[in-house]
Amino acid sequence: MTRFALTLEFDGTPFMGLQRQAHGPSVQQAVEQAVHAVTGEAAALHSAGRTDAGVHALAMVSHVDIARPIEPFRLMEALNYHLRPNPIAVLACAVKPDDWHARFSCTGRAYEYRIINRRAPLTLEANRAWQVQQPLDAGAMHRAAQALVGQHDFTTFRSVHCQSASALKTLDRLDVRREGSHVIIEAAARSFLHHQVRSMVGCLTLVGMGRWREEQVAEVLAARDRQQLGLNAPPQGLYFVRADYPDEADATSP
Predict the structure, then answer these.
(1) Of 88, 105, 122, which closes a domain?
(2) If you count Cβ atoms within 10 Å of the first and of the last residue's Cβ in the chain, which end, N or C, has fewer?
(3) Is the confidence at residue 4, as pLDDT, over 80?
(4) How far apart are alpha carbons 146 and 37 in whole angstroms?
């Protein structure tokens, strides 16, 4: 049995999420079906992160165990063939030790959230960003975001459906910048709560609109009360961008 690390890029628009769902298609199901088509084996896909319906990935690191002898490049090419027409691509494939695990060996995860701040409708980036028509102050959003960096109880920013044992998380970075009409939010941590990034983005956007004071983000964090959440950003602007592993300079290319 050989463990293969796969780096996946996918458009989450047609899926109910990364993980298998009883009520609709998932990225996991599509990849596992492709593996079966290539090898005849029922392999389970394990991934560094979980994504909700409509959330995308630029480099989701996953793994499968396969008994049949096959070279990594050939496996990658065959999976990409059988994944069509699903909007999923295997960007890299490599053999890993048996004790390496895409989820449990991961020491850091990074997400990016994309807002397009303009009045004109989205065309090329429809379903791939959140359109906010009201002008946003990205500088104010960045300053407010720094109150969330560090170790905190993120109950306010946690989905009621979150299965994590604790709301205590350490946020390593939360940066906001403007690039023309795009406002980009970058978040990095060892792990995140369910809906944490989208909840943080929603509140920062209220600051950018001028509807919240900058200090209000720190206040709702301290409240530890989901009812204090101002806004949960929609899924289509969220991207999983990186998974980090010990002794790997670039985990997105296993």
Answers:
(1) 105
(2) N
(3) yes
(4) 47
